[in-house]
Structure formats: structure tokens, C-alpha cells
Amino acid sequence: MALDRIDKKILNTLQENGKITNSKLSKIVGISAPATLERVKRLEHAGVITHFTAVVNPEKIGLSIIAMVNISLNLSNLSSVASIKEKFMVLDEVIECYQIAGANDFILKVAARDIKTYGEFMNKKLTQIEGIQIIKSSFVIDNVKEKKMFLLDLEEEYRG
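Above: the chain's sequence. Below: its structure in C-alpha cell form.
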């Protein structure tokens, strides 16, 4: 899908404020409200906009531990990668999961109430997944930057 300057302005604005009214959005991008709404719907239908959500501060809801967990798989069980992915998907504590290339096979971002709760997650859930060989946990001390927005260059042509 080709994105023109107006589409990019819509995307940049919605990423900054997903609660903006269509009327205000149309004024920012410089087209009528019905045309703006039609473009937003088109961007959703094309999968450019996947969903709208609220960003919640984990500490404000009692999740004071964020861990980055590096997972290495047992090389003899690589046929079970799909099964392992499915198991990661259903773990509520896992808030992000990436299959990666390099020294490890997966990186998980895990949220827990406290270190004891994280330990229970590790011992009762993560270590029980067959095919995992190594688990290395690192704990977030400070969130220096967490980018939620992909800034689109209004001048650059993009055809996806």
C-alpha cells in the first residue's frame, strides 16, 4: 500500500494521540472529516493500523519487575520451535516475545509483581517448557527510552 503525505500525517498524529477526535485529526491533516475517516478505515483495512490501545504504566498497576529473558533452545529439539512459540503466547507474564538470530533464540519481556513472583514464573512455567536449554534473566533498572511511535517522514515515498 502506498502511503502519501496525508496518510503519514494521519499515522504520526494517531500514534501520538490515539484518542484524538476525527474532527481534530481532519483539521491537522487538512482534509474533510469524512475523507479523514475514510483514510483511517483504509489504513486499518490494509493492516497499517493494527489496533488502538491504551498504554499502561506497569508500576501503577503493581508490576514493579520487568525482566528481559534470553532463551536458548536445545539444538536437538529445534522441531519443537512452533510449540515453544505457542507456549510463550499463552504466558500472561510475557508481554513481548521476539524470535531472534544470534547468540540466543528468543528474547522475552516479562512483567511481574515482585522478584518472588518472577521466580515462581521462572520455576513453575518457563523451566517447564520442553526444548529450552538456557534461560538468562536481566532486570530493568530504569526505562531510559520506550518508543511507541514510528515517525514517518512526510517527504519520503513509501510503497509497501
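The chain has five helices and six strands.
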